[in-house]
Amino acid sequence: MDQNQELAVARLRESVHKLGGSTQRCGDLTLMRFLIARSMDIEKAAKMFVQWQKWRTSFVPLNYIPESEIPDELSAEKIYLQGLSRKGFPVLLVKVKKHFPAKDQLQFKKFVVYILDKTIASAFRGKEIGNEKLVGVLDLQHLSYKNVDARNFFVRVWRFVSCFLEKATLEKIVIVTSEEETKEFMRDVGEDALPEEYGGKAKLMLLQDVVLTPLDN
């Protein structure tokens, strides 16, 4: 981090403390994620951090989501964690055709937390998490032919929604729609992380089958 970022983080810590929160267990790079998410606005970032901290404490009291609490979502076998891309980013594959509206919204919310926690942990064990990227793959191409309109609809909706996103968020998302973009995507991910059915060499690995070694602390 440069000097301006270090100063911003220091001020963020002060603001969080004034709001009743604590940054004791968070490193500078983690706090930078909140600043970047709020366009370096310290007060907005502090408010966001405190809200997140309160939510995390109440919603994830064990600091992880037990698989016994999300059986329906796991049984769909729709999320795969494929290791790291060539640039060292975790690669997460979502098979859209296996996803259906959740009947149990609480379980689905816990499932989302489980996905993000495990994906981040698999890539950054023992390492401070900064503003790293996640390579998320939505498998829209493998929907059946009758759903081709659904793929086009998704692209149109994304173009509309993107108008309301902040630049920092928008730059993290790329919708692959052309052959050239597909080739570039495959080069960035790398054949070692890309499953065979997408032109790579990797086997599909279900998220729940990825075993993480516990940290000492």
Automatic annotation (TrEMBL):
<dbReference type="InterPro" id="IPR036865">
    <property type="entry name" value="CRAL-TRIO_dom_sf"/>
</dbReference>
<feature type="domain" description="CRAL-TRIO">
    <location>
        <begin position="148"/>
        <end position="206"/>
    </location>
</feature>
<protein>
    <recommendedName>
        <fullName>CRAL-TRIO domain-containing protein</fullName>
    </recommendedName>
</protein>
<dbReference type="InterPro" id="IPR036273">
    <property type="entry name" value="CRAL/TRIO_N_dom_sf"/>
</dbReference>
<dbReference type="Pfam" id="PF00650">
    <property type="entry name" value="CRAL_TRIO"/>
</dbReference>
<dbReference type="InterPro" id="IPR001251">
    <property type="entry name" value="CRAL-TRIO_dom"/>
</dbReference>
<dbReference type="InterPro" id="IPR011074">
    <property type="entry name" value="CRAL/TRIO_N_dom"/>
</dbReference>
